[in-house]
Amino acid sequence: MEQQKAPIISLEAKVSAIECPAFNLLDDKSKHYAYYFTRACWAGAKICYFQRSYEAPGLFYLLQKIFQKESTTEVRDKLLQNEFTENQVQQLYTYISAFFQNCGNYLSFGDSKFIPELPQEKFLQFLQLTKAYSEQQEEFTKIWNLIEKYIYSYEKPYGLLDLLEKGGSNSYYSPNLSKELIEELDQFLHKQNLSELNTRVILNGDRLELLVASSERSDIVELGEIQGKKVVAVYGDFKSFLNGVATNLREAQKYAANETQVKMLEEYIKHFQSGDIEQHKESQKLWIQDKGPIIETNIGFIETYLDPMKVRAEYEGFVSIVNQEESKLLGNLVEKAEDIIKDLPWPKEFEIEKFSRPDFTSLEILAFACSGTPVGINIPNYDDIRQNLGFKNVNLGNVYGKPNRDSVRFLQGTDIDLFIKYYKESLFVVVALHELIGHGSGKIFMEDKEGKLNFENVINPFTNEKVTTFYKPNEHWHAKFGELSGAYEECRADSVALYLSTYDDVVQILVPGKTKEERDEIVKAAWLDIIMGALKGLQYYSAEQSKWGQPHILASYVILQSIIQKDPSFVQFIHSEFNNKPYFTVQVDYNKIWTVGKEAIADLLKGLQVYKSVADGENGMKFFNKFTQVDQQFLQLREIVLTHKQPRKIELQPDVRLNNGQIELVVFPESHEGVIQSHIFHYQNDVEDVKQEFLDRQQYFKN
Fold this sequence. Notes:
By secondary structure, this protein is an alpha+beta fold. 46% of the residues lie in helices and 15% in strands. The chain contains 26 helices and 19 strands. The strands form 7 sheets. The protein has a 5-stranded mixed β-sheet. Helix 6 packs antiparallel against helix 8 and helix 18 packs across helix 22. The longest helix is centred in the last third of the chain and has 21 residues. The model has no long low-confidence stretch (mean pLDDT 94). It is an enzyme of class 3 (hydrolase). This is Dipeptidyl peptidase 3.
């Protein structure tokens, strides 16, 4: 068998700075609020390294200490004086900037491992040449000996994030845990009304330990027994990090814009101190009520994409500032949303009775402390809150990239022009419809704690029988639909966006002032973007493990397959050569968007929504998996995509500092060295607790 090529971050990887000019328009009180919430976000982001891999926090600590003691320029000069070439220094800095931006050594977009391009002995030499190593030689040596093997290992089980028994590694579960035991534990927790969101699990001898993230509570609670193993909840996971979060949120309270924000922050603090998810839910109820703030924020254990079981959440926190002009367009969409939802293709009984009009704002990100920044968000993810109280949507406008002609692959001349010219408008349309109506529509059939159902006498259109299945209290739909649930939901939201884009009156709301011809071009660019996302995303499919590594990419692929299975002539591939290598270009019959394309998406949406509504994970995944398979044709396309693949850009975020009572925006050079400098600044030289947590508890997650 051909040896797998070492997964490195190419030196061609560009750095892309996020700019936040709106910060300078804030008044002094708002700037202080933004400052302390930003510090809270980054204080907690140390958790992300522990959730990424066993070795990530150890390397994080070493790199932080190195660049706290010496600047990137000083380290560069020292390496060049000690037989490092310019190319080797660049390999090193490219790896380190990617490591910091992904909060570890697995790509946040793809969940696959990347290793240093610099040879192992040269990486050790880099460590040993630094001032931090000379001052902490014993500690550095101890930590490096624990992680060195894992930093450079990428063969199975170290190549992908997954359970060990499925050929991967992760740091949500100790490797001696089976999928069967984890599932039984989670069912056991549901019966006790306990959430898994802010937990990790280890099997320690004959004890199943549920590690609960909390800063003040640190007791051990016996919960019962499963499979002959005692189950205990161990509070105090990530204690020091969450103490930093709570301390800064307490400071932010002093600068809150209104009483709702004060109460919201209080519930956040209680949640992080106690580990009680119910208190986080209270914070989200208040967050929904905080309408139209100038500074929009959120923080907690939010998205479950990273967990192989898709039930435990990754930490994240963000601070952003409203873009008034784009927010007005999104507000117009919210106003019309109730009427737009009526156009969706599933039976009306599968739609929520009353659409709660959410806040929908376009924001400029100031800080997004996590392993990756999305272009849009729809939260909270708690189904009971979403259905009964509503949610909020945000569009993160300053995160959008901009393609250039040289970077576009697999398209012909006129399609390249279309893609580039309408990229921003088409993405704005898709993100707006995806977040507001995609994630905001569709009913979940559930039973409340009193045993009352939120539906009656509903007929399942696929069986023509009454619906008898539903979600129990504290049962989340992700648990029913398993490891592909994230992709399933992103596919549903993207499909809603494409489906509604075929209604010209909907598109007109978001791009006023455009002619009918221009609006049609924007719709074509939107569909093309999803199609190209699926094709370029084939690089995130592991042929060896028959596994997709990125839920948004799989969502696009399912959409593409649903269209092709409906009409193979809709999207065709023309094979050729480019730079003396096999190549292909895509041909799309755009006229079919409003006919066959719309019909294909309608059929897809009907299945996705009905199975999700009735909690039928088994048949829902059978339906979904009809479109997830990668056959020989697409394996061939995948090889071509890999041959011509381009590295993703590495994100550079600004920060803020307190200087003589004034809050100032801090920006960094748009380079790999700038990314490193930014991440040293984000964590404010406060990383000793990372070393202690790594040495104390992370060892349970070593494969």
